[in-house]
Amino acid sequence: MSSQLIQEILAPLESLRLIDPHSHINPHSAASKTLADILGYHYYTELAHSAGCPREHIEEPGITPKEKVGRLIPWLATIENTAQYNWLLEMCRSFFQFQHDRITKDNWESLYDRSLEVLQAPNWERAVIERSGLDGVFLTNDFDDPLEGFDTSFYVPCLRTDDLVFHLVRGDVRQRLQKATSMAIGDATSLKKAIGCLFSHFKQRGARACAISLPPDFAPEPESEAVISGIVTKVFSGSEIDEDSMRRLSNFVFWTLAEFCADFKLPFDLMIGVNRRVYESGVYQGQDLYDKRTSLILYKRLLNAFPQVTFPISVLSETCNQELVSYAWIFPNVVTSGHWWYSNIPVFIERDCRSRLQAVPITKQIGYYSDMYKLEFALPKFAMYRRILAKVLAEDFVLDRGWSVERAVSSGIQILRGNVETIF
């Protein structure tokens, strides 16, 4: 009965077209060109490297896409148990008519050749969008992105601000900011004005959010412009500043971003708890890990100071998810957002999904985002989430509470798409 019930709920959720509220898609090269673009996703290189594949083996300069795939193939046998391998199989079956239950040294070359035909066919980008049921994909745009040459009604701009908050001490970041805004920056007032120019640029081109990933020890506080002006002058003249001044500068820029989110009526996506370069010998994009020391109490002042700003918050661990649930329970401006990175496997998704559905107003939950770098990953990632959501709705709400299937489906649609439309 439970399996049949899950299918009754899942079927309409699977036919629902989606808006993906967070990705790393490059709109100028959104779809994969070869199977190497798919297997080069950091999940696969991280897992292969973890299982013993030398980093240099897959990051050697000059290797062809087919050579890279061939070097990864032997390591796939070590990760067949993982959710990420299941995404890979689902993509190969859906897009490339792959008929086998494993990718092996005996069948990978025929798979590669078939994938090349599909991926390099005319209009593949449009085909994968339609097959994946996507009506929009939010981007992660550098603050100096001109936002030109792509359809911003489908590829929705999002102002990513990590460099502004944490890397203004780097000369290249300062140069990019001054070039993007055509402004000479020398004090707190001019820095604030430059950031306002970025918001104007993004908003005029259809941006729907501002976003940042944050380390576990960041604790945003407002800073006095009078104090910050001297620090800004030093930084933009190329002088070095001490650690306390760097912290104050980061606080000032971050607080300024929140103020402009209020002014421009943009949600501020916070992805909290990533510790960079933990494993310094890791593969590309495979060096960062979450940190259990993260606590949302560090954002108490921010959340109280900006009740008019919606903060979709993503966290990386189950313990943080329980804290996020409680904050979304209490704070009107806190929204639970997706299942980020190390939480993006079924066992964690299901438990986190259950807790959110049982405790957070249904209007305040962004069920899922892909975090993808290539369009092909939308299909298996959202398929995984839809199956889990249907299971939770069936077991916890239809069976346990006596909801109708129609009511459960309506809730699933709101979590998958409706809230994305209203919040953004």
Notable characteristics:
424 residues; alpha/beta; six-stranded parallel beta sheet; three-stranded parallel beta sheet; 18 helices
In short:
The chain has 424 residues and is an alpha/beta fold. It has helices at residues 2-15, 35-39, 42-50, 55-59, 65-76, 83-96, 108-119, 124-132, 162-166, 171-181, 188-204, 225-236, 243-264, 300-305, 318-330, 346-359, 378-399, 405-423; strands at 18-20, 134-138, 155-156, 158-160, 209-214, 268-272, 274-275, 289-290, 311-314, 334-337, 365-366.
Would you mind describing this structure in some detail?
- The chain is of the alpha/beta class.
- Among the domains are: 34-119, uronate isomerase, domain 2, chain A (Orthogonal Bundle); 126-138 and 267-423, Metal-dependent hydrolases (TIM Barrel, Alpha-Beta Barrel), CATH 3.20.20.140.
- Helices cover 52% and strands 9% of the residues.
- It is built from 18 helices and 11 strands.
- The protein has helices spanning 2-15, 35-39, 42-50, 55-59, 65-76, 83-96, 108-119, 124-132, 162-166, 171-181, 188-204, 225-236, 243-264, 300-305, 318-330, 346-359, 378-399, 405-423; strands at 18-20, 134-138, 155-156, 158-160, 209-214, 268-272, 274-275, 289-290, 311-314, 334-337, 365-366.
- Strands 4-5-6-9-10-11 form a 6-stranded parallel β-sheet. Strands 1-2-3 form a 3-stranded parallel β-sheet.
- The longest helix is centred in the middle third of the chain and has 22 residues, at 243-264.
- The chain is globular.
